[in-house]
Amino acid sequence: MAATGVVEPMKSNTGRKKARLLIRIPRMKETSKSATKSPRARTAFFMRYTVRHEKAVLPLVSFHGEKDPPMKILVIGAGVIGVATAWALQEAGHTVTLVDAREAPGRGASYANGAQISVSHPQPWSSPRAPLIALESLTREDGPFRWRPALDTAQWCWLTAFLRECLPSRHERNTRAIALLARHSLQVLRRWREALGLEYDVQTRGILHLFFTPRDWETGRRHEAELRELGIAARAISPAEAAEIEPALAPVAAKLCGALYAPEDESGDARRFCEEMVARLRQAGAEVLFETRWSGWRLGKGRCEAARFEGPAGAFELTAEAIVVCAGVDSPRLLAPLGMEAPIYPVKGYSLTAPILAPERAPTASLTDESKRIVCSRLGNRLRFAGTAEIAGYDDSVRPERIAPLKRWAEVMLPGVADLEAAEAWAGLRPMTPSGVPLIGRSPMANVWVNTGHGSLGWTLACGSAQALLARLEGKTPPGLEAFPFVG
Ligand SMILES: Cc1cc2nc3c(=O)[nH]c(=O)nc-3n(C[C@H](O)[C@H](O)[C@H](O)COP(=O)(O)OP(=O)(O)OC[C@H]3O[C@@H](n4cnc5c(N)ncnc54)[C@H](O)[C@@H]3O)c2cc1C
To answer: What is the CATH number of the domain that holds 447?
Structure first.
């Protein structure tokens, strides 16, 4: 069968109206290294050779017979969002430079998070129940939520906006947007994992959401119906079934009211993922710079001419045709000079990572205690316990009294399974928007893009957000995400 083509109108990243010829060339009868040498050679190759199967490989070719020229793109921030974005761009043929202030990738909020790929929890924290949960929690020393009021207008503005997003209609709309992105993201993560052979202590035994009070279980049952409607696999199960799926739960099954099992969900170490992706980026020819801090912009008319950095060898500028800001909780500081007020505020969380002492009693399914709001994931020969939400500004120090509930939970739920004395305690700042929906799209500057504000679900949403950002940057609507509220 010969290659087939359709004409598709599109808008380029520069805003120019163009038409493209979409060539369908499934599998080449003949492969040739020369076909991948240059866009022109590739196009000629695609046009010349016949194809055998109708499996879509879809190079986009302009009327002039050339692929859109690859762009030089700068990505700022090498957490899960930045490395995923850099990879999506590099994979699409662009020339990528990834820059981070820290000494290695994944040293911000992505360092030791709960490790869950939790498609089955698309509900943002701003929910109709959130104000009550927060009030109840404030009266308990070990409550999952803590607020340290500060003389900080950003904090008060964010809290006010958060309360607005708790309205039922907004919560529902935000849940739908996150669900769309989460489902897409899992597919992209799986594709990359397989194609790149990524190793990051992945577990694919699903997530068990555990409910320990009748009131919480009522919410769990409602979530089951809601998830079904959103096309997310999760089923309500009895305590006995939960213990059957995850035998490590047997000793506490009697205390359970019920569980939701999401078999498609996964877990894995986000920091290791970041390191693996940086290795693949370097192999693919991307430039990656660490200990290099963004320090300002050189602005032109409606665009950013260059980004300024402080690196080990001093100050310098980088120019690029496009720039993507993935700087986590620091994103608002980078975006403010561009005229963009990013509604992102840090919500601090804690984790404890302990070596496993009794592997036969350690869970392999990831667990979410919905009553205490603590998660537990197995990462190879370690167990990670994570949780708590603290609004305390940009302080990321570890407070022992906030680690204590995680330790207690591990002692009660999985006694003697992990060496808690040898555990690594960590605190990180979730880059949270009031709605829980990340900011993906174009900034007020024509060539500056944002992919940030992923809050409590950045690891879950990283790969799909990266793919979505790539599509927007190339002037396309990511398939399946037509209803997502992109910015810009
Ligand atoms: C306790 C806890 C548990 C969590 N559990 C889960 C979970 O189970 N599942 C899930 O999906 N999500 C979870 N999350 C959320 C998830 O970890 C975050 O959403 C995600 O890590 C955010 O990634 P990011 O790349 O946007 O930010 P970061 O990982 O913080 O990366 C931002 C990067 O930008 C760099 N940067 C900042 N400023 C500059 C500058 N001026 N110049 C250069 N570089 C700069 C930083 O050095 C950093 O490396 C959890 C978070 C916490 C804190």
So the answer is: 3.50.50.60
Does the Cβ of 130 fall within 6 Å of ligand 1?
A: no
In angstroms, what is the span from residue 79 Cα to ligand 1's centroid?
Answer: 5
For residue 8, the enclosing domain spans 4-62
For the ranges 27-31, 270-274, 359-363, the lowest mean pLDDT is seen at 27-31
Tally of structural domains, the chain:
3
Query: Sorting pLDDT into bands at 50, 70 and 90, what band is 177?
Result: very high
Do 455 and 349 reside in the same domain of the chain?
Answer: no
Q: Is residue 146 located within the same domain as residue 229?
A: yes
Pair (234, 254) in one structural domain: yes
Angstrom CA distances, 331 to 196, 443, 456, stand at 29, 12, 16
Do 239 and 155 share a structural domain? yes
Q: Are residues 286 and 420 in the same domain?
A: no
Q: pLDDT confidence of 137, banded at 50, 70, 90?
A: confident
Same domain, 203 and 237: yes
In this predicted structure, the answer to whether residue 61 has a pLDDT above a threshold of 80 is no
Write phi, then psi, for 453 (nearest 5 degrees): 80, 35
Helix axes 458-473, 80-91, angle to 10 degrees: 40
Check pLDDT > 80 for residue 52: no
Terminal CA-CA length for the chain:
42
The residue to mutate among 208, 388, 406, 430, having the most atoms of ligand 1 within 8 angstroms of its beta carbon, is 430
CATH number at residue 392: 3.30.9.10
Contacts of residue 84, Cβ cutoff 8 Å, sequence gap at least 6: 277, 462, 463, 465, 466
Q: Is the CB of 352 under 6 A from ligand 1?
A: no
333 has a pLDDT exceeding 80: yes
| Pocket probe mutation, ligand 1, options 452, 459, 463, max atoms within 8 Å of Cβ | 459
CA 366–ligand 1 middle distance (angstroms)? 20
Q: Does 118 contact ligand 1 (Cβ within 6 A)?
A: yes
The token duo for 168 is: 């039922």
Our answer on whether the CB atom of 464 is closer than 6 Å to any ligand 1 atom is: no
Helix H segments across 269-361? 270-283, 331-335
Cα 316 to chain center, whole Å?
Answer: 30
pLDDT, residue 134, reads 82
Answer whether residue 178 is part of any domain: no
